[in-house]
Amino acid sequence: MNRIPNAVIFNTLRILKKHNPGDQYYEAYLGHLSKRQDSFYDIYHFAWEWAIDHKPRRILEVGVRTGLSICQLMSAYIDYSVIEKVVLCDLFNDGYTSPELVKINLKALNIPINKVEFLVGDSRELIPKLTDKFDYILVDGDHTPDGALSDLTNVYPLIDQGGVIVFDDITEDGMGLLHVWNDFKSAHQDEFEWHEDLNGKGIAWGIRK
To answer: Residue 111 to residues 20, 117, 158: CA-CA distances in angstroms?
Structure first.
């Protein structure tokens, strides 16, 4: 995949910081960059690279918060007409985040929202009700081991052949969920091509064979 410069990631974060002054993700990422320097690699880098190379048409995110991940992913598109649907699932219950804030962030980057759908509620209840196949699925919601494994297990039937399941926060700089990812890998070892990068909060991905 293409190697995306840190400047691309941080430019998007700077733009969105104006619309999310209370959000500390920009400052947190500056901290990760200071620690890792040129080796820093995280979900936003991967999102840009995957979108540039593969242009996913059907996207599912479990764990959305303010929409930074989907903003980074969709910023990599030149032609949005290739996108069929974007489904964003989150509780949005922390008093700060909301679907409306996600829409504000998308609009701030001139990203169309007409194909974006929101599932507001518990992913463990909502994701099993989905029947569509997706070619890009991000699992970044419940960060307890049981909750994260439940989300991975529930999205597994939804990933299309050639699609990718992405899992965030596997290192101790994140939420230390590498063992959860390894359990999921063990259950589906021969069905995916597996990858991990530990140069940040830790990102893992599996490409469905």
So the answer is: 17, 14, 25
Residue 65 in domain: yes
Q: What would the pLDDT profile of 98-151 be if each residue is shown by its tens digit?
A: 999 999 999 999 999 999 999 999 999 999 999 999 999 999 999 999 999 999
Tell me: pLDDT of 97 over 80: yes
Tracing tokens 């489904």 back to the chain, one arrives at: 87
d(CA 108, CA 112): 10
Q: How many helices (H) and strands (E) does the chain have?
A: 8, 7
Q: Which CATH number covers residue 121?
A: 3.40.50.150
Has residue 1 been placed in a domain?
Answer: no
Q: Give buried/exposed letters for 39-74 (b at 16+ CB in 10 A, else e).
A: ebbbbbbbbbbbbeebebbbbbbbbbbbbbbbbbbb
Residue 55 within a domain: yes
Residue numbers of the domain that contains 54 = 6-208
* SS3 of the chain: helix, strand, coil, percent, to 5: 45, 20, 35
Number of compact structural domains in the chain: 1
| % of the chain residues with pLDDT over 90 | 93
Sheet of 85-90: strands edge to edge?
Answer: 116-120, 85-90, 58-62, 134-139, 159-168, 203-208, 192-197
- Of 62, 42, 30, give the one whose Cα is nearest residue 204: 42
| Report field, pTM of the whole predicted structure over 0.85 | yes
